[in-house]
TrEMBL record:
Subunit and interaction comment: Homotetramer.
Ranges that cross the membrane: none
Residues the entry annotates as binding Mg(2+): D103
GO molecular function: 6-phosphofructokinase activity; AMP binding; ATP binding; fructose-6-phosphate binding; identical protein binding; metal ion binding; monosaccharide binding
Keyword terms, alphabetized: Allosteric enzyme, ATP-binding, Cytoplasm, Glycolysis, Kinase, Magnesium, Metal-binding, Nucleotide-binding, Transferase
Broad EC category: transferase
Binding positions (substrate): T125, I126, D127, R162, M169, G170, R171, E222, R243, H249, I250, Q251, R252
Protein name (record): ATP-dependent 6-phosphofructokinase
Taxonomic lineage from the root: Bacteria, Bacillati, Bacillota, Bacilli, Bacillales
Amino acid sequence: MKKIGVLTSGGDAPGMNAAVRAVVRKAIYHELEVYGVYNGYEGLMEGNIKKMELGSVGDIIQRGGTVLYSARSEEFKTDEGQQKAIEQMKKIGLEGLIVIGGDGSFRGAAKLTEKGFPCIGVPGTIDNDIPGTDYTIGFDTALNTIVDAVDKIRDTATSHERTYVIEVMGRDAGDLALWAGLANGAESVIIPEKQESFESVVAKLERGQERGKKHSIIILAEGVGNGVEYGKKIEEETKMETRVTVLGHIQRGGSPSGYDRVLASRLGAKAVDLLMEGVGGRMVGVQNNLVVDHDIIEILNTKHKVNMNMYELSNQLSI
Ligand code: ADP
């Protein structure tokens, strides 16, 4: 392969820029031509594609968001949309494409590969909901953003002797909530994969109050439901003053952590290696600190699992 493309798609995640940088620099290092596709699959169908040089990715390793922008496209889900995208790539002479995004984006990459255009998926999402990799790019940064926010909320929770319900992102996965719960010493973590009963959460809060606890923090994953309603129920049941914070999109922004930058660099480079070998239809990941790759369809047919040992530990430490 002599000419490859790279795009970012779906929800943005801190570290996507570091991955784009790694793809571009690694490709140029191996004397490939590399093209940036703007606005995800939408831009791919429109031919919004520009040649990247070494300098195109200068000064972006530390930036959140994605310099290639991201978009969601319904049209691309159709055969015609995918055909349109392939024609645009053929016009320029691209032979392979690296897709940085979440599982929706990987479905698109799998479809293009099926149609004869080799693609490699790089997991970029704060949700950590992709099997075949221990971490996705952006997860560590988002976790640290949550940890920092909860520390601040804890200060005011203590001053006012309140219970706080903090809703965090993660779509259908509980990873962000679970990790944040452990890192912040939350009283309860409510995740979609294993719902602690409402009675048990209430009993824990009441035990804490009897012991003279000044505050309680409950971390609720967005996949479980609405934090505001959950907070109301808690207040009605316990009669303790309860406030709710929905952290929202601050979790998706900000400068990527050192870990995410390194992960993005390793995975972006591996994606280029695979395309150079003429391989498509794979996703890259990191497992036990080794860079690995898997069949993308197999990954899409596997259900992501949260680490239940960590969930147990979180319960044991918050008695
Ligand atoms: P993420 O990649 O973060 O999971 P989405 O689920 O929104 O984000 O997917 C991003 C884009 O990937 C969609 O807007 C769509 O263009 C493309 N995509 C999603 N699912 C499919 C599919 N089944 N077939 C083809 N393309 C898809």
